Amino acid sequence: MLASKPCVSTDVGDVKRIGDEAILLSPANSSIALANNMLIILNKSTEERKRLGDRLQRIASSKYSITDSWKQYFNLYTKILGSR
Predict the structure, then answer these.
(1) Mean pLDDT, rounded, of the chain
(2) DSSP state of 77
(3) Is residue 1 part of a domain?
């Protein structure tokens, strides 16, 4: 997402939590659905792929900064180590 590219993924983990239609999700065990979503992206115009990628880059930059991730991991590790 930070690379400003459209995203195709399986519906696992927290991917759906991002909640944006710019991410094409496929069922976890369906390689056919995943391949079809890849074809959907490839069949879009260059401009549309760029627009989707730029949108995801903005989402990733605003929601998932390195600083915020570092703080979350630090707090988690501190909590785990403090509970021993």
Answers:
(1) 90
(2) H
(3) no
At residue 58, what are phi and psi to the nearest 5 degrees? -65, -40
Distance CA 31, CA 18 (A): 22
**Confidence grade of residue 18 (pLDDT, cut at 50, 70, 90):** confident
Tens digit of each residue's pLDDT (9 = 90 or more) over 44-81: 999 999 999 999 999 888 887 888 889 999 999 999 99
Tell whether 3 is covered by a domain: no
Question: What is the DSSP code (8-state) at residue 15?
Answer: G
SS3 at position 62: helix
* Total tally of structural domains belonging to the chain: 1
* Pair 60, 10: CB distance under 8 Å: no
Task: Tell me the residue type at 26.
Answer: S
Q: Which domain holds residue 25?
A: 8-82
